[in-house]
Amino acid sequence: MSGDQRGSAPRDWNAASYERVSAPLEAMGREVLDRLELRGDERVLDAGCGTGRVTAALAERVLRGHVVAVDGSPAMVAEARERLGPGVEVFTADLLELELDEPVDAILSTATFHWIADHDRLFERLFAALRPGGRIVAQCGGAGNVAAVQAAIDAVAEPALAGWPGPWNFQSPEATATRLERLGYTDIRTWPQDVRVEPDDIREYLSTVILGSHLERIPAERREAFVDAVRERLPEPAINYVRLNLTASRPE
Questions:
Q1: pLDDT band at 24 (very low <50, low <70, confident <90, very high)
Q2: Which end of the chain is least crowded, N or C, by CB within 10 Å?
């Protein structure tokens, strides 16, 4: 669920902070996992595993199978390895360059794809990772996601962010369905979902989950003030998400 890939390698994350504040994302991820029908003997990829919270729930559903978990952040991967143990294969990977030793029966991904600029390349690599007949079930930020946060960022007008398009690629359900069809997927379904999150610590949530890529571009002495300024401009201490859900298959 990490890795700002807009023209650069995936960024690293503060895994300890993410572990503290990511319960709302875990809840969303478990809801997505519930859409993935499994017999229990499949080989499944978690594409963007973060600290492994949802991966652990996935592993419990394929006790006779095998889980492969990848993330672009070495810190996240280290945390996930510690949580998941030797029974799950966990490694650092850029999803735009994903290569697996053998294909998987299914792919799960939550809160990851919106960090990746090139969705054509992304879904090409995921298609290649699937066995014929394999399926993908995923959720990420979609068109209109965190609009109030973006408006607050724009209002703050931090000079270090001038001219930068930002780290996110929020696509519409319609554009995503068209892309998946063009790349050869079948059984495609895409739809939006509104999710409201009220973090226990809105400031840490903003710093770690939402504004991490922004903060990397801002001089260290201005970072705390930037987070405070964004927080002050939010209409309420909550995050209103628009999630893009998708399911699709690779033809037999």
A1: confident
A2: C
Question: Quick one: 39 exposed, middle or buried, by C-beta within 10 A (0-12, 13-18, 19+)?
Answer: exposed
Among all chains, which residue has been given the structure tokens 């199978």? 65
Going from N- to C-terminal start, the domains of the chain cover 15-147+166-201+240-249
- Would the CA dihedral through 242, 44, 118, 184 be positive or negative? negative
31-47 pLDDT per residue, tens: 999 999 999 999 999 99
- What letter does residue 40 receive in the DSSP assignment? S
Residue 15, phi then psi, degrees to nearest 5: -65, -35
* C-alpha angle 128-137-22 in degrees, rounded to nearest 5: 115
* Cα distances (angstroms) measured from residue 212 to each of 123, 129, 156, 205, 217: 25, 29, 16, 10, 9
Write down the architecture of domain 15-147+166-201+240-249 according to CATH: 3-Layer(aba) Sandwich (3.40)
Q: What DSSP designation does 27 have?
A: H
Asked if 123 and 183 count as a contact pair (C-beta separation under 8 A), the reply is yes
pTM (whole model) above 0.70: yes
Distance CA 196, CA 3 (A): 23
The residues pairing with 46 across neighbouring beta strands, listed in sequence order, are 69, 108
Cβ neighbours of residue 31 closer than 8 Å, sequence gap 6 or more: none
